Amino acid sequence: MSLPVNLQISRTHLLSRKKQTLVAMLGVTFGIAMFILMISFMKGVNKFLEDTMLQATPDIHIYNDVKTDYTRTVAGDYYKSGELIMIHHPKPKHVNLNIRNAELIINDLMQNPDVAAVSPHLSTQVFYNYGPVQINGLIDGVDIMQEAQLYGLKEKMITGRVENLLTSNNGILMGQGLTDKLNVRVGDMVNLATPTGTFMRFRIEGTFQIGIGTIDNIKSYVNTASVQQLLGKDRSYITDINVKLKDIHLASAYAKSFQTKYAYKADDWETSNASIMASFLIRDVLTYVVSITLLIVAGFGIYNIMTMTINSKMKDIAILKAQCFARKDIIQIFLSQSLVIGVLGALTGIILGFTLSYLLSQVPFPKNENISLKFFPVIFEPKHYIFAMMFGIVTTFIAGFMPSVKASKIDPVAILRG
Amino acid sequence: MSIILKAEKLNKFFHEPDKFQVLNNISIDIIKSEFVTINGKSGCGKSTLLYLLSTLDTDYKGTITINDTVVTGLSQNQLARFRNKNIGFVFQFHFLLPEFTVLQNVMIPAQRLGIHSEKEIRELANEKLKLVGMDTFGHKVSSKLSGGQQQRVAIARALINEPTIIMADEPTGNLDSANAQTIFNIFKELSTAKGHTIIAVTHDQDFAKNSDRTIHMMDGQIVDN
């Protein structure tokens, strides 16, 4: 019982109207709880999408872009008169889309301390033939061990092992969706036809499921040499280099430096997935707008209740001021009430928010074979809880401060004289 | 005979709705342990005078000296502290804090002043309640008491910081004659036995007649001292 007298008064005020205090507190509680639930869920969705996206996108993708720059032309050689030559709508030139000094670039990338893995790629469109079934798809010629490191392929294998590809001649790792459509299993042989008309037979060594339908239904991995053979190219023919960094956030900086260093187009994962990144931003903004609105509404609730309290306590305030209480004491008495409401509301809100988030994270996600999601994605991050707490307290502080100042300005003479 | 309160040439104007002089060049001296009543018709400015003397109202011309301190021109916060130590109030309405117990109501001004320990304040409060005959009601919530009882608690509250001056604005205005008599006896006792100076504004002729001195006011001036 050794509270300062101002706080004793404030406590008596709070306890003498428990119901009002509780209602004001619940306003803050729900605001904070909804904020935590929303941000944990939205961030969880973002995290899930980002993870999924990164399973399909390398941190940095280096490739030889098709150029559409036709300012240099041989036309000048034929028309030497020096007149202005205009060429309308030229056809693209035939270019080899390979990276010429791939070996050097890969070695150079391996030296970089921030690079975790480098995987050279050679991709081509193919038709998968098995009996009468013909499916349009894609094969990736890769160094499978590097590729496995890039995308954590080992955990994604449904049947067979990644290493089997190394030991087998003309082996293939197929997407699970693809094998389902073809109705094949490990050990079966499939025919692949390229758009240029060449054929090759591959033996299925394993199946994988990334969790993204558009990949699992069309993609297969083979050794680089097989694709080079299929395309009739030499052993140094590589079209893409995929890089995994140790820190994903360095990607955009490195992409720029790689582009200038190697003179090939280098895209970081954020650029390749600009639309998904935009959706992250939109979800974040949405979350904050809704939550902050909720908290501000709770703030108005507190403001109302404090104003009502102060209006009904005009006489009390007047007598306190007449006796001995300075303006700062009056502010302290009423501000501490709203802060108590704010802190208690924020604490219970955090507990409720955590509970709701936890419950949501236990709700099974509707089964879908194309999405590798078992439960609703929810993340638990302390900084969200700290932010919610701070915001809750700041809101109640402002909501309580204005009526408290008003109370402190009451002229005791005017009220005591009646 | 030492002068405890000295007011010199007090002038006070009301500006709403029209400019109007409420107090006109009032000078009074009040001697220590005197029981003074201020009497007069409604609107003669007697309450206004009391609020000036009590330092609650600072919008006036002239000088007020209490206990050798010139209070005119002190800041609001300095005045709040000065009042707490030197002046006790009793109003026509008791103005007790309704959610608090009788004891808490009496204790609060002393707790704010913070000179004594919690335990001493409690003893002091009980002592003051005994003085007004309310010591058995200490743990009752103040809103549950009758009007006369509440006024007695209000007096105990005014006494808690041992003020040299007690100011009362119509202390018996809302009470029946029996209760009014009780209150009067308490005041009388305080001034004669305890040496408190008492300044009370009142309509009540009996109350005024029995005090040491009555100041009659009319139209903002003192007519009979």
Residue ranges of chain A: pLDDT <50 for 5 or more in a row? none
Please name the CATH architecture of chain B. 3-Layer(aba) Sandwich
Query: Helix/strand/pairing class of chain B, anyone?
Result: alpha/beta
The greatest interface here is:
A-B, 28 and 32 residues
CATH C-level category of chain B: Alpha Beta
Shape estimate of chain A: elongated
Strand order of the largest sheet of chain B: 6-7-8-3-9-10
Q: If strands are numbered along the chain, what order do they take across the biggest sheet of chain A? A: 2-3-8-5-7-6
In terms of DSSP E residues, the strand content of chain A is 15-25%
Helix content of chain A: 55-70%
Work out the count of structural domains of chain B: 1
CATH-assigned homologous superfamily of chain B: P-loop containing nucleotide triphosphate hydrolases
| Total discrete domains of chain A | 2
Tell me the strand percentage band of chain B.
Answer: 25-35%
Q: Give helix % range of chain B.
A: 25-40%
N-to-C SSE string of chain A, H for helix and E for strand: HHEHHEEHHEHEHEEHEHEHEHHHHHH
The protein's oligomeric status is: heterodimer
Radius of gyration of chain B, taken over Cα atoms and rounded to an integer in Å: 17 Å
Shape of chain B: globular
Description:
The complex is a heterodimer of chains A (about 425) and B (about 220). Chain A has helices at about 5-15, 20-55, 75-80, 100-110, 145-150, 155, 165, 175-180, 215, 225-230, 250-260, 270, 275-310, 315-325, 325-360, 380-410, 410-415, and strands spanning about 60-65, 115-130, 135-140, 155-160, 170-175, 190-195, 200-210, 220-225, 240-245, 265-270. Helices cover about 55% and strands about 15% of the residues of chain A. Chain A has a six-stranded mixed barrel with strand order 2-3-8-5-7-6, surrounded by four helices. By secondary structure, chain A is α+β, with helices and mostly antiparallel strands. The two termini of chain A are about 35 Å apart. Chain A has two domains: about 5-55 and about 275-415, no CATH class; about 60-70 and about 95-270, no CATH class. The longest helix of chain A has about 40 residues, at about 20-55. Chain A is built from 17 helices and ten strands. The longest helix of chain B has 17 residues, at about 175-195. The radius of gyration of chain B is 17 Å and the shape is globular. The model of chain B has no long low-confidence stretch (mean pLDDT about 85). Chain B has helices at about 45-55, 75-85, 100-115, 120-130, 145-160, 175-195, 205-210, and strands at about 5-15, 20-30, 35-40, 60-65, 70, 85-90, 165-170, 195-200, 215-220, 220-225. The two termini of chain B are about 15 Å apart. Chain B is built from seven helices and ten strands. With about 220 residues, chain B is of the alpha/beta class. Chain B has one domain: Rossmann fold. In chain B, strands 6-7-8-3-9-10 form a six-stranded mixed sheet. In chain B, strands 2-1-4-5 form a four-stranded antiparallel sheet, with helices on one face. The interface of A and B includes residues 1, 9, 315 and 323 of A.
